[in-house]
Amino acid sequence: MPKYSTLLISLLLLSACSSAPIEPEAYAGKFKDRFTTSIKGEGIKLFTYQAKVATATDRGIEDPLPHQQRVNRRRQDARSYAIEQERRQDQLDLWGRQVELGLQKTIDMTGYCKDGFIVLNKSISEGRGEVRGECNDGATAEDIEKFSRNY
Asked: Distance between CA 137 and CA 45 in Å, rounded?
């Protein structure tokens, strides 16, 4: 019975999140990100922003066994599976927006791209995201000093 109540609570939370505006606090403690910079000899400033949802182990909670997840999936009827897939797409959209927000906040906090940036490649999947980009501005001597040793 506790498994079903956890599932029900999770579904209620997911449906509530899909209509709410994105707030960084919603992912507090559930989100891990990494910002890597690279300044080329010509002053070209590149970056990679990687984000992922923290695993249950990262958050210090027990994760259900993969076997139990498969058993639960087999017990699920087709209609509830279709609803789950629709919610999963909504969550993927929300996650993609959260990754973009995390990147923008990181750029703002570090001051890495002063004149904005262009996205060279973006990959968003369930629980993971990666954005590679190039700053519109070239590297200054200060940028080279700051970002070659700190990032």
From this structure: 8
Helix (H) or strand (E) holding 53: strand 45-53
Lowest mean pLDDT among 2-6, 81-85, 89-93: 2-6
The angle at the Cα of 23, spanning 19 to 26, to the nearest 5 degrees, equals 90
Instruction: Give 58-79 pLDDT, tens digit per residue.
Output: 555 555 567 777 677 666 666 6
What contacts 150, CB < 8 A, 6 or more positions away? none
Helix (H, G, I), strand (E, B), or coil: what is residue 63? coil
Of the candidates 77, 87, 119, 98, the residue with the CA atom closest to the CA atom of residue 31:
98
